[in-house]
Structures are given as structure tokens and as C-alpha cells.
Amino acid sequence: FGDASVKNSIEGTNAILGGKGYNLAIMHGLGLPVPPGLVISTAACHAFYEAGLKLPQDMQDQIWASVATLEKQLGKGFGSVEKPLLVSVRSGAPVSMPGMMDTILNVGLNDDTVVAMATQSGNPRFAYDSYRRLLQMFGDVVMGVEHRSFGEILHDYKHAKGYHLDTEMTGEDWQQIVAAYKQVIIDQTGKPFPQDVRQQLTMAVSAVFESWHNERAKFYRNLHQISESLGTAVVIQAMVFGNLGDDCATGVCFSRNPSTGANEFFGEYLPNAQGEDVVAGIRTPLPLEKTPATAGTSFEETMPVLYKQLCDVKNILEKHYQDMQDIEFTVEQNKLWLLQTRIGKRSAAASVRIAVEMAHEKLITTDQAVCRVAPDALEQLMHPTLAPSSKDKPFAKGLPASPGAAMGILVFTAQEAIAKAHEGIKVILARTETCPDDIMGMQAAQGILTSHGGMTSHAAVVARGMGCPCVSGASSVQINETARTLKCGSIDMKAGDFITIDGHTGNIYKGEIPVKPAVLPEELQELLAWADAARRLKIRANAETAQDTKTALGFGAEGIGLCRTEHMFFDAAKMQLMQAMILAENIDERRKVLERLKPLHQKDFIDVLTLMQGLPVTIRLLDPPLHEFLPHTDKDMAELAKNLGVDTATLSKRIRSLDETNPMLGHRGCRLGITYPDIYRMQADAIFAAALQVAKNIARPVALEVMLPLITGLEELRVLKKILTDSADAAGIEGSAVDLKIGIMVELPAAALRAGELALEADFFSFGTNDLTQTTLGLSRDDAARFLPAYKEQKLMPADPFASIQVDTVGALVRMAAASGNAAKPGIKLGVCGEHGGDPASIQFFNTIGLDYVSCSPFRVPAARLAAAQAAIGQKKSQ
């Protein structure tokens, strides 16, 4: 891509060249300063694996031909001691995976070329610093030397010399380190570092290809649902050096603030350093833009001409890509070079703000803005924030690298974070700096704290992409990972102590700090208004309490798709009556208790229907097995026996008589209504009385939908529908301001198979995809977690079927039932009330098959609104 012949005529696409190679070619085509290089395509990655982890000979021939072109273009020689050419070897997947695969810098250095570099540059310190970096990366990535071995050598040497920073090291010091690094490679591998530069390059390319399947890359792909079949490209690029002297630097910048979304240039740099120093957080970097606190150290102040040039680059790239850019740059002897650009990772709040502001700036359309924000990101916005009292004082402050409040016990390794999280314990992962190998521990932790690194370090970038709170660069905090301690002034903490971090402010507190509800970005309402204009699916919420109903309405729910009446019985007064009803000795006794329960139940429905003000409310009659309402411990049984005036032995015998071998497939749902019709009759009377009372006090008719659970066929439906219609007639629903519909929950394959005939009696179908998944796949939702990870790992199941609908099985039944129902009763209302109602991928499927609405938990309503809009926009584009 450094050859002028390819300018403005890039061959291939992002999928072939990988993100890094494709974007470098784009930048070159835009006339921006990019070091020349070559791209080995993702197709070559597949060929490498098909050849048994070997570079085929024809591939090697092409690499050497391209390197020869690079030599000619630059007037340098790869391995030459006259004018040595050094290259970087970097991964470049089609989808950004920051830090997950491997990079090797300074390939081409050996015992001869390093002398030439030292002589020609007049800077031995630079030459041997570059050589030790190659030895460290190559030894770790290619030869399998333990990464910490190099760090320990450098740490011990600096300690012995009294150095604090790498920049204090002289050329002679780096020569000593080079010798020590070469020896540790021999000690751990039995082989010397290869002096043949061609061997270095082929081994480096192979190692980068192999890193596509390293553990952290596989974990990251699973976490972000990136296809393993993509493969990675490899970029071989001429080195430019930010560590040549005081007129050199390296940095990372974002065209907008990745934490807040503010339209401000944001970034960090290090003078006299290579790019890995910024990303790895080895040194805390300096700001790009001058502030009152920079005191002449900012890039804007120290290199003003290059700062202006970088601002121009930022504007060009953002305009071209129409999105916030993450740019890596190097300054070599006062010349700016661009090493990479990509779509920048950002916090959820920043994602919303950037999308909305770019639409206002006419960079993108409102539909594009809607599609720019991941629905899952909106769920991150619901995270609470800290509400410290006057006595809660932070003991330290770092950089607010990724917003959110996080509390937990201190752990100091990724392995410990994973182990504690598996035990259900919340943890904060504290590290001097994180590295890509920490990815699994970072995902397991509630939050991340580092003492080194900046806002563009590995910890910050990965945490923002994961939606995990992070405070980085807390330089006053001393983290000792070996001793498992954290110290700051008089604060002395150890593993297992509670700590709180605030990713909004960077504050760090000892112990647990109170939280307050999240404050949503003001741009969110505008984005959701655009989403509402674009979507077809209605969005309802699952709610049965006044609080849940208010929350749902506040988040824009257009109705209640599932009001679970059993949840209304869980307060103490109603629970006692429910238990007395269940344990009644005869029908007359049961009816007496139900009469006492009815006004309390009616009050619940009045509260919900009043709040909804005529929006549709789907009320499901009692569903769970009766034993779920009864006590199981000796203490609770004794208390209930006392309340009921019976002896404990009699009560225990009665409770045991209700036990079932498989209660979720047993005496529950509509089967309760068949065997205990008085229960459903009481519920119907309470619902209709409440609806009539509310209808007198609101401006719109009450849109009431009563739903029968666990229906298998027409016979059950007719028996139970008569109970409901008789109750409705007795109450006087017909002719009132109550619009009554009676429908069923389709949650069994039998109901899906008989949907055509069931539609003749039902006014609506609501697909209960939780139970439909259990009964279709034969999976227990409560037990499947024990083996589903193994299924996903072996690619036997692409995703958890309870989290995202399995389209070819459960989805096929929903599609078939919807079509059959519509054929029998055109326009029958069709919705979803299972967990899949809030899943973006499932919502896309439901939109495609023409359902009318989805229902989800109140806090998932904004995400569902956005996902439904994206599904509609995507469907419109494909037509």
C-alpha cells in the first residue's frame, strides 16, 4: 500500500485485507503519511492452517517478492548492514480485536544490523532499546519464553542501577539487557534467537497467524460474537521510530472523547517511545491537548506544527469513515506517520452522544444513527452510579477510563478473578497494568483498576468495549501482584478486602459505597424517538407491580405483555391466604379463602390498569405449581401450622401430597384451572371488577387481554374460556369501556402444532419462548448451564438458546404457529413474552416473521426499542 500505483484503487475488501491493512490502504489513498508495507490476506491465513501451520512455498515467494519491492522503494535492505530495513509484523482481523492477537516490532535486527543502526543513527541507546524490544516480543510470541522473565530482568537491572524510568537507561545499559534477554531465550527454549532475518520474518508471520487461535482471541470472539471463520490478515510494514530522541514520539488519539462522546480531540502520547509503551501502559502518557495542568508537556505545546497536522488528519478520517476514529501515530524526527486507524471503541453513553451529534452534523442520517448504537449498550446505561456520603472519601484517584460504579473484593490475577466469579463473588481486578492475557479475568470482574497506563491503554480500551467500569493510571496506588497487596499512603489493603471504584470520576474508595440510579444521557431520548419512527414492532414490558409498571412506562413501554399474577401473591398478607387456600380441606373452605383474597387481588389490578391509562395489559392467570407457595423448612412449616391452627405433622403430610417428580411439566398452568376452577374464577372476577372500576376514571377504554397459560389444545381452551366469559358477562363487561380479549400463551409444541384450530377460539397468541425452548429442546433452564458451555465450545450450539432464540427449531415453531394462526384468523394479535423479547438477535427474527410486539423486562425496553428499529431498517434495506 506504499506504492503509488495502488493509490485510490484498493483491491479487495476489509474481509480480505483485514481491518488494519484495509484502513492503511484507505489512508494511503487519501494522501496521508503511511509507512509503506504489504498485506498478507485472510485467505493466506486459511491456507496456513490447511497446510498444517506452515507457510506454503508460493506464499513465501510472494512475501519475498513484496519485501524486495519495499527495499527498492525505500532504498534499504532487509538484513543489510549498509542501510538496514526493519519491519513490524502485525495482525489484522476483519473485525477489531484490540490486543487479542500478536504483534512483533523491529524484525530485521540482529547482532550485525543493530551495530549498523547504532552507528548510522549516532544513537546506540535507540538501537539497543529497539533490539531488546524485538527480543522480548519475539521471545514471548514466537519462541514461547515466559513474558514475565523479561520483565523481571529489566526490573532487577533498573533497581540495581537506581533507575525509575526506561528513559534513564543508556546505550550500554540496553546492551547489557540485550545480552541477558538472549541468554534467557536460550535457557528456556534451548535455542538461540535467530540471527537470520528471513527466518525471523517467516517465524513472525507464522506466529501471528497462529495467534488467531490463542485463548484470549478465542475468548474475545465468543464474548463479542465474532466468527472464527474470518481469519486474520498480517501486515508487514516498514518501521518508523518514536524512540530515536527528543524529536520523536508515539501516541494514540480519538477523534472524539471515547468515554463521554464529546466532540473534542482526545488522546495521549509519549515522547521518545515506541507505540507499545502507550498501549501497554508501561509509562503513564501525556495529554495531546494543552490544559491548565499540562505545564508545557502536551503534544500541542511541545510539537505544535505536528499537532495541527494531526488535527487535520483526524478531521479527514472522521469525514471519510463517518464515525469516531481511533488513530495510532508515530513521530520520527519531526515527521508524522500514521500506523493505524479504526472505528474507536467507546462507552455506552459516548456511543449514544456520538451517533446523535453526528446526525445533527449531517455526517450520517437518523437511520444510520439508530444503527450505530448496539442495543446491549443501552443496558449498560442502566448501571447505577455511586452516591458517596460526606463521610465517604476517596483514598486515591485515577483516570475515569470506562464509566460505571463497581464494588467487590480485591483480586490481583485474572485466574483469581475467574475463580471467585464462578463462586458468585464480585471482584475488582487490580493490576499494575493489564495485558491481553488478562481478558478472561477482566470479563469476570465487576471492575478494573490499574496503577499504570492512561485513557488509551489496554485496560481502558478493552473495558470500554466490554462495558466494564475501569479506573486506570492511579499512580499513587502501589499494586504488588506477588504479595497481593494494594497500598496508598496510610491505606493498606490485601486480597479479599472490599474496594469500590467509580469509572465516571476515577475515584477509588475503601469498602462499599452506596449507589444511586443511573442518569441517562440527554441524547438518548432523541435517539429513541428516531428509533420509534423507524420500527414496526411494538414494545411492551413484563410487569405486575406498580413500581415495575412505572419503570416500564418511563422507559417507553407501549403496554404490558406479561402480568404474572402469581407474583402478586408474594407479600405476607396474600401469601398467608394463598397457603390457606391451597391447604383447604374442602371446596367450601377453599372458596371462603378465595373470597377473602379477591379484593386484595383486585386492588393489584386497579393499580396496574390505572397506571397504564388504556395501554394494553396482558394478564396471565395463575401458572406455577401450587407447591411453590408452600414452605419447605421445618421452621417455616411450624409457623404456618400455628397460623392455620393445625399440627405440624398433618401440615407436612398435606404439603408432601403436592410434591411432583417433574413439576414444570406437571400440575401447573391451565391444568390448575381445570382441576381448581374456583381459582381462575376468583382471578377473573377480580380482573373484570378492577377493569370496570378503572374504566370509569380514565379517558381511554381499558385494553384488557386475559391469557391462559400452558394450553395444549382446543378442548382445554374452550373449558377455561367459558369460565372467563361467564365471569365477564356477570360483571357486565359487554357494552362497557373495557376492550376484552381472551388469548393463550403458546409455550408448548402441541399448541404451536395446533395453532390453526386454537386461533378459532383465541383472540391473541403470546409466545412464551422460555418454556417453548425447554419443551422443544428438552432442556431445563435451571440445569442447562452445567453443560451448555461445553456445547458452545465444541460448536454444537452457537449460543445459549434461552438467551437468543434457536431459529431453526424453536423459531420454526413460532413461525409456523404465527402463519397458521393468521391463516385461520387474519390479523390475530401475535406477541412474545419470553426472555427472547429483549434479545436483539431474536427481535430481528420476530420482526422478520411479522409478529406485532415483543415484551421484556422494564429495564430492557430501551434496548428492545432500538433493536426493533434496527431490524426494520435492515429489512427495508434488504428489500
In summary, what is this structure?
The longest helix is centred in the C-terminal third of the chain and has 26 residues.
Describe the structure.
With 879 residues, this protein is an alpha/beta fold. It has an eight-stranded mixed beta sheet. The protein has an eight-stranded parallel β-barrel with strand order 23-24-25-26-27-28-29-30, surrounded by five helices. Helix 6 packs antiparallel against helix 7, helix 13 runs antiparallel to helix 14 (366-372) and helix 20 (546-554) runs parallel beside helix 22 (587-612).
What topology emerges from the helices and strands here?
Blueprint: H1 14-29, E1 37-40, H2 42-50, H3 57-74, E2 87-92, E3 103-107, H4 113-121, H5 124-141, H6 147-161, H7 171-189, H8 197-210, H9 215-224, E4 233-238, E5 249-254, E6 266-271, H10 275-280, E7 286-287, H11 299-302, H12 304-321, E8 325-332, E9 335-343, H13 348-360, H14 366-372, H15 375-381, E10 385-386, E11 396-397, E12 399-402, E13 405-411, H16 414-422, E14 427-431, H17 439-444, E15 447-450, H18 458-466, E16 470-472, E17 478-480, E18 485-488, E19 491-494, E20 498-502, E21 507-510, E22 515-516, H19 523-534, E23 538-542, H20 546-554, E24 560-564, H21 572-582, H22 587-612, E25 617-620, H23 634-644, H24 648-656, H25 670-675, H26 677-695, E26 702-708, H27 714-731, E27 738-746, H28 749-753, H29 755-758, E28 764-767, H30 769-777, H31 788-793, H32 810-824, E29 829-832, H33 840-848, E30 853-856, H34 861-878
